[in-house]
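[Discussion] Sanity-checking designs against the backbone

I'm trying to build intuition for which residues belong where. Below is a structure token string of 195 positions. I'd appreciate it if someone posts a full sequence so I can compare it with mine line by line.
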């Protein structure tokens, strides 16, 4: 899956996302994608009931996960800020990102892709799934523990007994990593002439 890993180009993408003027829930979804780097379908179908904003966590049930294991996504200050902007618009409904036509269905992954394309990023450069590759590549380059990264990507555990208990594994470290990742992305946005 195409993913940007060039820091200058990532900064351009993040600035383009911030400037995107389309449907507000769509804009919020695309702003959250690089911060959370979950699978596109998980982001698309996010429900308010899964979010514990006090604990600063998105708790995805096993039924929604590819590997059928519960998953926790720690929420950075930046992600919480976006959610606070979104809540008055969609917080009384089921989905964070309802379709523009009906609030009983979420936005489509295709519409998220159309938004990325409208910003000037081709299918050979970036996909919605590419936010995962982007985060994995850069977090590894930054020296974060591979186990923390893999756990945050919700990659499957081969030992099914262990898998049943590992949804919170390395949670304090992942919480710190996710905040530092969000801060790093903010830095890329600000440096227009990043080396």
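Best answer:
Here's mine. Compare freely.
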């Amino acid at each position: 899956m195409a993913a940007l890993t060039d820091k200058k180009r990532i900064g351009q993408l993040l600035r383009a996302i911030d400037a995107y003027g389309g449907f507000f829930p769509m804009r919020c979804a695309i702003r959250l994608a690089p911060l959370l780097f979950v699978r596109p379908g998980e982001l698309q179908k996010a429900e308010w009931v899964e979010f514990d904003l006090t604990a600063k966590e998105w708790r995805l049930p096993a039924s929604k996960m590819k590997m059928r294991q519960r998953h926790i996504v720690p929420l950075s200050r930046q992600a919480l800020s976006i959610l606070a902007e979104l809540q008055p618009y969609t917080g009384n409904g089921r989905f964070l990102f309802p379709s523009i036509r009906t609030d009983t269905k979420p936005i489509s992954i295709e519409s998220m892709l159309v938004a990325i394309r409208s910003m000037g990023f081709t299918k050979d450069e970036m996909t919605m799934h590419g936010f995962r590759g982007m985060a994995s590549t850069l977090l590894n380059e930054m020296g974060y523990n591979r186990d923390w990264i893999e756990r945050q990507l919700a990659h499957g555990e081969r030992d099914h007994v262990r898998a049943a208990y590992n949804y919170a594994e390395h949670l304090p470290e992942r919480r710190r990593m996710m905040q530092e990742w969000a801060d790093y992305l903010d830095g890329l946005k600000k440096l227009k002439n990043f080396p």
